[in-house]
Amino acid sequence: MSLAEVRHLLHVHVASFSTLYPDRQINNIYFDSPDLLTYRLNTAGVGYRKKYRVRWYGDDPRQVSNPQFEIKIKKNELGEKQIFPVDSFSLTHLQPLTQQINQLAKGGNLLLPVLLNSYKRSYLISRDGRFRVTIDHHMHYHGLLRQAHFLRYTLGDPAIILEMKYEAEDDESLHAITQNLPFRQSKHSKYVVGVELTN
């Protein structure tokens, strides 16, 4: 299904999704332990786990502006984020950033930059404001373990990822939303996909 078709389905949905923010490009560096513990816990389906990434916005990932370090904590189907501002950095010299991330994470395991990825994100919200949708598209990946210095992307992914976001108290109302969408819910991790594509 094309991006235009996905957008149309949401606009004519009974929940009447409309644009919340303008589209923008998201850039991430994912960090993991040398033995890729975060990756392994994710693929094993462990209910409680953490994901470490640095995120910034902009059409050129080499132009880093206002980056922030995020620790995503997954507790089965629920999730939360801890966010810390970090210093600007260069994609050709990640050592200062890596040192700062390890100071902030305080997790015991050494964290290394493993994957760089970028994608466009569209933001929509239901008429009642309880359900938000993000549509991620035009995804690109670069493995930092194999090539630490980034020059340009050479690996793309044509997938379109739709994610529904809502508060825990609205979980019972989710079925009324999803039953009117021709999609099957599935697990998807950009980090896992990127690691498998680049290694």
Provide an overview of this structure.
Strands 1, 2, 3, 4, 5, 6, 7 and 8 form an 8-stranded antiparallel beta sheet that branches. The radius of gyration is 17 Å and the shape is globular. With 199 residues, the chain is of the alpha+beta class. It has one domain (3-198): Alpha-Beta Barrel (mRNA Triphosphatase Cet1, Chain A), CATH 3.20.100.30. Strand 5 and strand 6 form a beta hairpin. It has 5 helices and 8 strands. The mean pLDDT is 93. The protein starts with a helix and ends with a helix. The chain has helices at 3-11, 37-44, 95-105, 174-178, 190-198, and strands spanning 18-32, 48-57, 68-75, 78-85, 112-125, 132-143, 155-157, 161-165.
Short characterization:
With 199 residues, the protein is an alpha+beta fold. It has helices spanning 3-11, 37-44, 95-105, 174-178, 190-198, and strands spanning 18-32, 48-57, 68-75, 78-85, 112-125, 132-143, 155-157, 161-165.
Describe this protein with a few key phrases.
199 residues; alpha+beta; mRNA Triphosphatase Cet1, Chain A; eight-stranded antiparallel beta sheet; 5 helices; globular
Ordered list of secondary-structure elements with their pairings:
Elements lengths: L2 H9 L6 E15 L4 H8 L3 E10 L10 E8 L2 E8 L9 H11 L6 E14 L6 E12 L11 E3 L3 E5 L8 H5 L11 H9 L1
Antiparallel strand pairs: 1-2, 1-5, 2-3, 3-4, 5-6, 6-7, 6-8
